Amino acid sequence: MLGKRTHPAPYSHPRIPPLIELACKCGGLITCTHPVNSEGYSDTPEGWWLRTAEDRSFTAKCNKCHFSKKNLNYFEVVQIGPPYYSASVGLDHIWGWNKEHLETIIQYLHGDPITNRWLGYMRYVPGKWKAISRRSTYIKAAKKVLKNN
Q1: What is the pLDDT of residues 46-90, one digit of tens each?
Q2: Could you tell me if 61 and 19 are in contact, meaning their C-beta atoms sit under 8 angstroms apart?
Q3: 106 neighbors 85 (Cβ within 8 angstroms)
Q4: Domain count, the chain
Q5: What's the domain of life for this entry (predicted)?
Q6: Pick from 83, 19, 79, 24: which is nearest to 53 by CA?
Q7: Long-range contacts for 89-96 (Cβ within 8 Å, ≥24 apart)?
Q8: Residues 89 and 137 in one domain
Q9: 62 assigned to some structural domain
Q10: Looking at the predicted structure, is the pLDDT value of residue 5 above 50?
Q11: Does residue 123 sit within a domain?
């Protein structure tokens, strides 16, 4: 799902966050985590891990149903379901790996300075999201997703 051409806004960078939130078929939130450090999250992308098929440290669990898997790699995780924080904008989508990521994208599109762990990833925000003619539409859709979830 994430990082493939068939998915909205594929990212091609090698490091990914240790928390990815996906939508479950039951409507619940699947939390996918990687044990990067004791806090589960580093404040810099350097503390995140490289996406490799050999790293099978992911766990995934839905907050509403019995869905649960362990020992997954990134490529297996992204096949579980679409991003939980995702919104349609015409034929396109705006999405974030998790709530914090989508909130940061909104800040970035507003032109606010980014000072958190996501700063380095703002270079991967698709140009169509940043286009002045459509930026407000993407921001509005993303805010609606955050409000409803």
Answers
A1: 445 556 667 777 899 999 999 999 998 888 888 999 999 999 999
A2: no
A3: no
A4: 2
A5: Bacteria
A6: 79
A7: 89/134, 89/137, 89/138, 89/141, 90/137, 92/8, 92/128, 93/8, 93/9, 94/8, 94/9, 94/129, 94/138, 94/141, 94/142, 95/8, 95/9, 96/142
A8: yes
A9: yes
A10: no
A11: yes
Mean pLDDT estimate for the chain: 82
Percent of the chain with pLDDT over 70: 77
pTM attached to this predicted model = 0.80
Whether residue 50 sits in one domain with residue 32: yes
Q: Which domain holds residue 115?
A: 85-148
Token pair 């990815």 is at which residue?
Answer: 20
Q: Do residues 72 and 97 share a domain?
A: no
> Which tokens in the block code for residue 79?
């096949």
Domain boundary among 77, 94, 117: 77
